[in-house]
Amino acid sequence: MCGARHRIARDPTWQIGAECLHRAVQSHVSHRSAECLCRRVVRPGGRNQCRVVTALRRRAPPCCAGGPAASHLPGSIESRKFSSHTVSLTGALTSAQGKMHSYLKGRRAQITLVISSLSLGGAEKVLSMLAKHWTESGYIVTVITLSASESDWYALHPSITRVALDLLSPSRHVAHAILCNVIRVLRLRAAMRRSQPDVIISFMDRTNVLTLIAAWGGRVPVIVCERTDPRHHTIGRGWNVLRTRMYRHAAGIVLQSNSVLDWVRQLSLTHISHVIPNPIDPQIVAVHGVEKKRGSKYVLVGMGRLTPSKRFDILLEAFAQCIGDNPDWSLLLIGDGTERQRLEALSYELGVAKNTTFAGKARDPSVLLRSADLFVMTSEYEGFPNALIEAMACGLPVIACDCPSGPREIIRDGVDGILVPPNDRGALVAALEFLMKSATDRQRMGEKAVEVVERFGSDRVMRLWDNLIDIFV
Length: 473
Description:
Layout: H1 2-10, H2 12-25, H3 31-42, H4 47-59, H5 62-66, H6 89-105, E1 110-115, H7 122-136, E2 140-145, E3 161-164, H8 174-195, E4 199-203, H9 205-214, E5 222-225, H10 237-246, E6 252-255, H11 261-266, E7 273-275, H12 282-286, E8 298-303, H13 312-322, E9 329-334, H14 340-349, E10 356-360, H15 365-370, E11 374-377, H16 386-393, E12 398-401, E13 417-420, H17 425-437, H18 439-449, H19 452-456, H20 458-469
Parallel strand pairs: 1-2, 1-4, 2-3, 4-5, 5-6, 6-7, 8-9, 8-11, 9-10, 11-12, 12-13
Helix pairs in contact: 1-2, 2-3, 2-6, 3-4, 3-6, 8-9, 9-10, 13-17
C-alpha cells in the first residue's frame, strides 16, 4: 500500500481519481478503502472492482450505500444539506473514471441538455439559466430540443451549441405516433452522440423517457428532471408504464419539492433522487423602482399558462364576488394559453370584463409584478411555481391554493402569504377580502415575501446543481 501512495503522489492522473473518490466517501469509509478504490479506477472492469465497491458499501452507512433517504430530506428545503455523500459509491466510481478520461484527453467537460422546446414556461426558463451558468463556469454545453428553433422564447448564451430537431409535428393516429417517436429516438440518439457529453440532463416527463431510450446501451449517465407533480399530471397510460421502467436506468432523478418524494418512494428510486428547487431569475431581483401607472388604484395579479390546471376561472369568480366591496381594484392576468378565449368570455359573463386585463406573454414580467399590489395563484397542482417565487421576490403579498406540491414549501402561511384549500371559492374570497381591505397586512407580508430570495436565490440553487453534476463530470 505504501508503494501505491507514492504512485498516487507522482502521477496527476491518479491524483484526480484519488481526489474525486476520497471527496465522495471521506466521511464514511477509511482512507485505505478510498485509496484502494482509486487504484481500481485506473484499471476499471476487473473482477475485483465489484468486490471493492461491495466492501466499501459494507463499511458505509445505509444512506451512502444507496442514496438520500427520506430522513435526510426534511420538509424545509432551505434546511436540507445537499451533499455528494448521498450519492451511491457506484456513481462516485463512474465520476472518477469520467474525470480521468477528460484529463487524459485534455478537454473541458461537456454537458448536454435535452427538452421538448424552449417556448415560454418554467422548465424552459430553468434550463436556459442552467445552460448559461455552466457555460460561464467553463463547461461545453449543448442544448437539444425536439422542436424547431422558431418556437424559442428564451435566448441562449452565444457559446452554447443549439440543436433543434424539428420533430414535434402532430400525429394522425396511434401507428403514426409510434413511428414518430421511433424517429425522435433515433434522431435524438444521433444528436446526443455528436455532442459527446459527459452527462446528459433531460427535462419533462415524455422527453425524459425518450432521452433514456435514446441513451440506452451507452455509458453516459442520464439525469432526468420532473418539473411538475407526476401524481396529478397525467401523461397517458403507455407513457406512465414507460416512465416507470425507464427511470430505473437513470443516473439521477431531480425533483422540485419534497412532497413528490412520496411518488419516487413508490418506485423504489429514492436512492437516486435529489430535491432541487427552481432558482429565482437574477433579472427579477435586479429590477427596482418601477413606477405604478394604471387606471385603478390597486391591482390584483395572476400569472401562468392559461390552461385548465391553473384554474384561473376560480380566480375570476372570486374576483367577481369581491369587486362589489372593493371597486378600486382591477385584475391583471399575465400569460397565454388554450383557455384564454374561454376566460375572456367568462369575464363578460361575470360582469368583470371592464376590470380585467389579459396581458398575454410578457418578456419581463417583473415590471408588471412590481406595479401590482397582490398576487394570487389558484393551481390544482404545481411542481415548484416560478410565478409564485418571482411575485414574492418583487415584494408582493401572495395568496395561493395549498395544492399537493410547491406552495407550502415556499409560503410561510400568515407571514408572507396566505394558503387556502384547493378549489375552495369561499376560502379564496375570504383571503382576498382580507388583504384587499388591509393595506397594513399587505405591506407586512410583502416585506417578508422578499426573503424568498435568500432561500431560493440563483447562486444558492446553482450550487446544488453544481454539486450534483460534479459527481458525473
